[in-house]
Design goal:
Helix 5 packs across helix 6. The chain has a six-stranded mixed β-sheet, sandwiched between helices. A three-stranded antiparallel β-sheet has the order 12-11-13, with helices on one face. The protein is an alpha/beta fold and about 260 residues long. The chain folds into three domains: about 140 residues, Spore Coat Polysaccharide Biosynthesis Protein SpsA, Chain A, CATH 3.90.550; about 50 residues; about 55 residues. It contains seven helices and 13 strands. About 30% of the residues are buried. Helix content is about 40%, strand content about 20%. The longest helix has about 50 residues. The radius of gyration is 32 Å and the shape is elongated. It binds zinc ion. The site of zinc ion (ZN) has 6 residues, from strand 9. Zinc ion (ZN) binds next to strand 9.
């Protein structure tokens, strides 16, 4: 099995776990990784990619090479989510033959190493391909501690309509339409933004925020109504207490023999 390790700096554990692999330096520019993948695709040669900071579990690469599936991946921790990406993935020659243009057609501007996984995997999913997820997890020695957003986010579709991200590529991503949409699914937001097919729409409130604002207005109206009711209740209580005091006063006067005059 052809094993490629695209790298800028190889983690020692990755190095140790990939003896015999071909190491490909991809630090010359942002698109070097894409070119490596494109060339691999051209060769139609079944290949396992192990990124420079990902460590497959013991025996993982052997198991993946032996697996009859033609798209396999170990999931790993990425940012603050567990997901498959390109980090430890096998692309079989049959998958390449069925989708010969999936890498070469990635548009200029979307070929950077940082979003390439989302674009390629998203397109393969859109075409109905599904990866076989291997367990256990691979280890990812990435110090990316950026917390992904979990608030409702409006996403504006800026693709050309021919390509978009489809749905879950590993865990719990809702269907992604090729239109503007909004979601609070952190994985979906990250995948959309990283794919370059969507940008965040900051032009106004999200539907959820608008609904909340409407609810706030309604709440304020209800509060005002309640305040009026409470005020009138307080008035009734005061009146009742005054009545009670009058009755008590009369009773006291009666007890003393002073009859009230009518
Ligand atoms: Zn497999």
């Amino acid at each position: 099995m052809n094993v490629l390790v695209p790298y800028t700096t190889i983690h020692p554990d990755t190095y140790a776990a990939t003896a015999g692999a071909r190491r490909v330096y991809v630090g010359s520019d942002d698109e070097a990784y894409w070119r490596m993948l494109r060339d691999t695709w051209w060769q139609r040669r079944s290949t396992i990619i192990v990124e420079h900071d990902v460590v497959p579990p013991p025996g993982g690469l052997v198991g993946m090479a032996a697996c009859p599936c033609d798209w396999c991946a170990f999931a790993y921790h990425c940012g603050d989510i567990w997901t498959t990406a390109l980090g430890c993935t096998k692309f079989g020659s049959a998958l390449m033959a069925r989708n010969p243009d999936v890498v070469s057609r990635v548009a200029p501007g979307q070929r950077g190493w940082n979003g390439l996984d989302g674009v390629v995997i998203g397109e393969l999913h859109r075409r109905g391909e599904r990866e076989h997820v291997h367990i256990p997890w691979a280890v990812h020695h990435h110090d990316d501690t950026t917390t992904r957003r979990i608030t409702m986010t409006k996403l504006k579709y800026v693709g050309d309509g021919s390509r978009y991200l489809h749905e879950d590529y590993f865990a719990g991503i809702p269907p992604i339409p090729p239109t503007d949409w909004e979601t609070d699914n952190e994985t979906a937001i990250a995948v959309c933004l990283e794919s370059g097919l969507y940008v965040e729409d900051t032009s106004g409130d999200t539907k959820a925020e608008k609904a909340q604002a409407k609810a706030d207005v309604k709440d304020a109206a209800t509060d005002a109504k309640n305040a009026v009711k409470e005020a009138s209740d307080a008035e009734s209580v005061a009146a009742a207490e005054a009545d009670k005091a009058a009755i008590e006063r009369e009773a006291a006067e009666a007890a003393l023999g002073h009859y009230p005059t009518y």
